[in-house]
Amino acid sequence: xxxxxxxxxxxxxxxxxxxxxxxxxxxxxxxxxxxxxxxxxxxxxxxxxxxxxxxxxxxxxxxxxxxxxxxxxxxxxxxxxxxxxxxxxxxxxxxxxxxxxxxxxxxxxxxxxxxxxxxxxxxxxxxxxxxxxxxxxxxxxxxxxxxxxxxxxxxxxxxxxxxxxxxxxxxxxxxxxxxxxxxxxxxxxxxxxxxxxxxxxxxxxxxxxxxxxxxxxxxxxxxxxxxxxxxxxxxxxxxxxxxxxxxxxxxxxxxxxxxxxxxxxxxxxxxxxxxxxxxxxxxxxxxxxxxxxxxxxxxxxxxxxxxxx
Length: 309
Prior knowledge:
The chain is mostly helical and 309 residues long. The chain is 77% helix and 3% strand. It has 11 helices and 2 strands; from the N terminus they run H-E-E-H-H-H-H-H-H-H-H-H-H. A two-stranded antiparallel ribbon has the order 1-2. A hairpin with a 2-residue loop joins strand 1 (23-26) and strand 2 (29-32). Helix 1 (10-17) packs across helix 2 (35-71) and helix 8 packs across helix 9 (215-245).
């Protein structure tokens, strides 16, 4: 029982006893804490400090073991020189960072069109009535094809196949890579959104239509906002995956971060530039990963507290 736990922590109880008569301000109200609540909070703080100490100690132990195993391996010196050379790290950083700008440009433009394409696909697949069967069929066929085909194949087909249709016209490689990204990830995002649309209870749609809203107004003001909230973590995961796959446009010849690292490696026979590119991609993805975790935790908290999700 939570009320019995503080009695097992003598030091926590002793420290909390001195706080008797504490008044807590909650907005415009004053809340007088009981001795039981004070003891409970002291016990929780002691448990938190203990858990934090254990986590730090175990992390340091695991880190020390990993460093020891790697540093004492027979080929560590050669590996360190080939992948973690400080001189080549500094030399390759400007070129790789400049190439990353192309990745960011392609990514930002692609995200907009992927979002639009995903909404259109999800809407088409959610249409009701036999008259919309061709749209539903085309949307389902599109998602089946592009979800089943590896992205690298789509990239080759678009990057080398489309320019071959008119060899006299030069198409920017970044544009071709962006088109491949949009074609592939629109299918993923569309399916995630469709799952969110179907997760909204039918009574929401019926209530909106009974108030006189049209089908489009119901989707815009009632269904889509709820659906997006339900699938927001999955959508963020898709966009994080797209952020990584944007580096594959280097296979078409674009001088992005990966291609810049490859050029540096070809001239120095050292792989440190790839490590630089990897670190830059991690730095680019990290804010979205943390945002995704924060958003997921926030939704779970609201669900557990009974709030509207």
